[in-house]
Amino acid sequence: QVQLVESGGRLVQAGGSLRLSCAASGRTFSTRTMGWFRQAPGKEREFVASVSWPGGNTYYADSVKGRFSISRDNAKNTVYLQMNSLKPEDTAVYYCAARRPTATIWDYWGQGTQVTVSS
């Protein structure tokens, strides 16, 4: 079992930065691929970024490449999403997720944290 709790979301002006955190509990965190997803009002949930275990491989959605950076601290059981040059279209609820390295389904999800970017 893996429990995920996101934090760090808030209101920020366009062009600003935020760092989201996802604290994980459960002994299998260090073997999981971790990811961030987001869901804007009226839209489907979309992939943002992921990081493999132990952290060598990262992947990003085209819409955030060059602006967002995902990282993980396995000693702290925490994954981060550094978001720079934020745009109003980045406004969404951001979710942390976990999956087994060889799986395609993300089987653990956090409750989400709201990020609002004002123009």
Structure description:
This protein is mainly β and 119 residues long. The protein has no helices and eleven strands. Strands 2, 4, 5, 6, 9, 10 and 11 form a seven-stranded mixed β-sheet that branches. Strands 1-3-8-7 form a four-stranded antiparallel β-sheet, with no helix packed on it.
What attributes characterize this protein structure?
50% strand; 119 residues; mainly beta; 0% helix; seven-stranded mixed β-sheet; four-stranded antiparallel β-sheet
Query: Could you tell me how far the N terminus lies from the C terminus, measured between alpha carbons in angstroms?
Result: 40 Å
Helix content: under 10%
SSE-based structural type: mainly beta
Order of helical and strand elements: EEEEEEEEEEE
Annotation, overall tally of beta strands: 11
| Low confidence ranges | none
Q: What composes the largest sheet?
A: 7 strands, mixed
Query: What spatial form do the alpha-carbon principal axes imply?
Result: globular
Number of helices: 0
Mean pLDDT: 94
Radius of gyration, Cα only, in angstroms?
13 Å
Taken as a percent bin, the fraction of beta residues is over 45%
Quick overview:
The chain has 119 residues and is mainly β. The protein has strands spanning 3-7, 11-13, 18-25, 33-39, 46-51, 58-60, 68-73, 78-83, 92-99, 108-109, 113-118.
What's the layout of helices and strands?
Elements: E1 3-7, E2 11-13, E3 18-25, E4 33-39, E5 46-51, E6 58-60, E7 68-73, E8 78-83, E9 92-99, E10 108-109, E11 113-118
